[in-house]
Write a structure and sequence with these properties.
303 residues, 11 helices
Amino acid sequence: MYHTWMRYFTPSPAHHRLGLVCLGVGLQYGALPTVGPRTLDHHVAVVITAGRGWYQTPDGRRTTVTAPALLWVTPGVPHHYGPDPDTGWDECFVDFTGPAATTYTELGYIEPDRPVVPLSDAAHARTAVGRIARAARRGNPLLEVETAAAVHELLVALRRARADMAPDGDPVLQSLARDAFQPLSVAEHAARHGMTPAELRTAVRRGAGCSPKDYLLGIRLGRAKELLAATELPVAAVARRVGYDDPAYFSRLFTRRVGTAPVRFREQQGRTVPGGWSNTVPDPDDPPMLRSPGATIERPRGT
């Protein structure tokens, strides 16, 4: 015996321009029927939350699937899978499509070459699927946008839940982030980790979906924006703070990547904060309180 609930959607051309749309959602439990062999023209994320079963590759090889796990169904790729007939399994699935899926694939969030992905935990993925299921109520005027947003959330949750990732993230990425403001080359960063530059590129590409250079640049420019917006440091001092000894090079790089010069960015975003910004992330459930009616918001003390 098994239980199945599912809904399917047909987003409009305007919704497709969001870049990612949800085509369907389902929750299923028990000794479910075998799926396939079949080929689809869109993506499906099948999250197995309990039980076990199998997945068969196009060349006929079978892989054991043990919960928690993710099955990636990708467009144009034949797939064939099913739960153990004696135990069954619990699954939730989301069908989706859109040009943003190509970008998610390039960033390593969707892995066509890994149709079976062990997960460390499926709780956050189930939460995202639950959002889609709740949005699927009949007559919801926000259906397409709500479900599209939840697909983005699902892809992030599945990426974070991969069993080959540490709960706090990749230690190589953490170390790079700590050293991001030091004037080190990629080769020097690699040597610090006992890796070749090629090995570091592979590790960062797998962990962050980009090259080490772009990963470090994103951290540096993010900090530069904070300093430009919240302090009166000269641009040359900001450049040195984020690892660039040549302020002219920093300005050219900032302008090319951000789309505006550092001085112009400061004019647009600048807001002097006495004492600096706080390094403590505010608790959304306990926001800073007003001093008194009509007073300015009390900000955490900076460091």
